[in-house]
What does this fold into?
Amino acid sequence: MKIALDPYMLRDRPFGEVCRIAADIGYDSIELSPRPDFIPFFTHPRADRAMVAEFRTALQETGLELASILPLYRWSSPDEDERVAAVGYWKRAIQLAVDVGCPVMNSEFNGRPEQAARSEAQLWKSLDELLPIFEREGIRLNLEAHPDDFIERNTDAVDLVRGIDSALVGYVFCTPHTFYLGDDVAAMIEYASPVLAQVHVADVLNHRASSGNRYIVNPPGSSARVHQHLDIAQGEVDFAACFEALRKVGFDGILTSCVFAWEERAIESSRFMFERIQTLLAAARPAKA
It folds into this structure.
């Protein structure tokens, strides 16, 4: 099992410094989420050969692995021009993954929840063009459900991933999305287990009163998707149940610490998360006879 750091809170630092910080804490790998100088949010990648070489050197010098790259593109957009552009951006991002030696790419379903059927149709069009490239390059693609995407529920997301029916396509369970994905974290992990490849680890507040309304946003019943990726124990996710469920299903993929809330204490948060993940893994191991 790999324990990776998503260094989004360190995105303003050069790759050498990012890798040193992660390695000094004890992480064995990095999951590279969008950063302006490499693969930005929703636009064409910016990295050139010099940037790729800089990143590869930083990884080699610190002994870190690049476990995954996470681009975010509007490849399920109901707007066809946006979708076509996103497919082009994906092609360049895949090439960068090849160049930097990364075997896994993660992303979100994207699209619009108010146009779910149209968004799904657009995703299938994009996959028809991109899956052969992933297969040719031997790169795994893992997908996660995200609040405000056309798929927000764990069961629906897992079913769609299974419907793609490719050995190279898996599922990312994102713990800070727990209360959008469903209610029972252990049951959701069990349902996802046939295709579960990666888990994003951060806490989140439920933001719901007993009536089912969101109590931080007014008026009650607002459609705003309120969530922030917090340090473990700052929210309401049952991590003991989560890690026990991962043990029960034999999960052996990538665990990524992905806290985004504390940029003023990014290193301290990253260290805390690594230590807490190690503690949870140890607690979930069966006792020796």
About this structure: The longest strand covers residues 169-174. Residues 213-219 have pLDDT under 50 and may be disordered.
